[in-house]
């Protein structure tokens, strides 16, 4: 079958797989399929990595934060192997090559600020993950920010990497730009639409200029995150159901010289605060604050959330001066398959629906897991790579751009 067939003002494009949604799950899957020889296309209506992906903290979790109750949970077991998958990719040794992506920190840390309750929590966490969590006992081995004489807590080193997500996005799409398409699903008058037939996607219609393109595939994979609900409505399906778990993140831009990549333990089974640090072009840091403060702060105004963040940081890191810092907040919705009581799913989710697959990765770290599951489903349907050496979209079609950094519109 020819990959492109022109008839008057209508052009048919034939692919093996069309991935709809350019977040981390869609990008990892798209990259994997192309490496395997599939004619795979990626469709994105905004920017690549521009929503939940870039707003993540860039931590490739290994499950440690899911053990703070003292139990080795199913979620911790499902995600435990992911850091090594990502480390292999960063070394250029995995199915996906991320060797040109930027590592912000080789390790994430977990620390107790010194009070009895948080020390007990850290004790239970270390028991649950014995052999996979190492206490940092020598002062010279501590992250620089904890070498202050005022620090009285305990620090654990975790096998979790922290990444610059924008560079991960660039790495995943590099060399494959000609197989990406900028679409517009925003309304019935948009330039792109799903054309369905008896519960299946017959093709995707995309109009540019005076030419209409019909994109056909053996399988359509929905990796659209929060946008899945709208696209499923256009597809004409109502299942699987989606849930949104909101966060109210805090950003603080400052000149303190030391970065911080760590979970601060408290009395709950959620970290009191999770901090990652992101370098800016003007030589400062943006600390990005998640964890309990982000979950509990959903109903707070930005001003209230910033007041809480300032108070919390003064309590857990009293030697760090934020007098001249700039503050802002960012709201994020985590899109996931619906669970009872809005609980967090344990693993990546993939459900076949007609000639499509509806997916959610649930965590950035689980993108490889999602690609594996989709691969198994393609194999079960006998959809094999047809070869893609010369495969590309027509040269005049528009491609989505890579997202900006999450803080880019918040600070001077």
UniProtKB/TrEMBL annotation:
Pfam family, one: DAO
Protein species of origin: Endozoicomonas gorgoniicola
Coiled-coil segments on the chain, per record: none
Alphabetically ordered keywords of this record: Oxidoreductase
Protein name: FAD-dependent oxidoreductase
Domain FAD dependent oxidoreductase residues, every copy: 16-331
């Amino acid at each position: 079958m020819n990959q492109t067939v022109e008839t008057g003002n209508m052009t048919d494009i034939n692919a093996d797989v069309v991935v709809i949604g350019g977040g981390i799950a869609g990008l990892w899957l798209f990259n994997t399929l192309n490496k395997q020889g599939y004619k795979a296309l990626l469709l994105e209506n905004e920017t690549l990595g521009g929503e939940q992906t870039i707003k993540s903290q860039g931590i490739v979790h290994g499950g440690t934060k899911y053990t703070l109750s003292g139990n080795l949970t199913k979620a911790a077991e499902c995600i435990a192997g992911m850091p090594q998958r990502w480390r292999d990719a960063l070394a250029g040794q995995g199915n996906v090559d991320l060797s040109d992506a930027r590592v912000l920190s080789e390790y994430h840390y977990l620390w107790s600020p010194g009070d009895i309750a948080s020390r007990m929590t850290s004790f239970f966490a270390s028991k649950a993950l014995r052999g996979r969590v190492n206490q940092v006992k020598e002062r010279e081995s501590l992250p620089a920010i904890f070498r202050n004489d005022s620090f009285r807590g305990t620090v654990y080193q975790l096998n979790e990497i922290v990444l610059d997500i924008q560079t991960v996005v660039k790495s995943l799409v590099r060399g494959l730009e000609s197989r990406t398409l900028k679409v517009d699903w925003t309304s019935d008058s948009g330039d792109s639409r799903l054309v369905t037939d008896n519960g299946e996607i017959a093709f995707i219609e995309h109009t540019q200029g005076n030419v209409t393109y019909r994109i056909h595939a053996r399988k359509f994979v929905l990796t659209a995150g929060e946008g899945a609900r709208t696209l499923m409505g256009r597809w004409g399906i109502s299942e699987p159901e989606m849930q949104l778990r909101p966060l109210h993140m805090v950003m603080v831009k400052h000149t303190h010289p030391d970065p911080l990549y760590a979970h601060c333990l408290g009395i709950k089974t959620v970290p009191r605060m999770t901090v990652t640090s992101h370098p800016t072009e003007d030589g400062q840091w943006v600390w990005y604050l998640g964890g309990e403060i982000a979950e509990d702060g959903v109903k707070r105004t930005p001003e209230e959330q910033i007041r809480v963040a300032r108070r919390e940081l003064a309590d857990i890191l009293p030697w760090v001066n934020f007098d001249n810092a700039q503050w802002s907040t960012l709201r994020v919705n985590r899109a996931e398959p619906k669970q009872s009581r809005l609980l967090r799913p344990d693993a990546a989710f993939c459900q076949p629906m007609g000639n499509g697959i509806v997916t959610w990765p649930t965590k950035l770290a689980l993108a490889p897991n999602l690609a594996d599951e989709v691969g198994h489903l393609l194999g079960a349907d006998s959809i094999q790579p047809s070869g893609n050496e010369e495969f590309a979209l027509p040269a005049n079609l528009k491609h989505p751009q890579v997202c900006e950094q999450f803080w880019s519109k918040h600070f001077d």
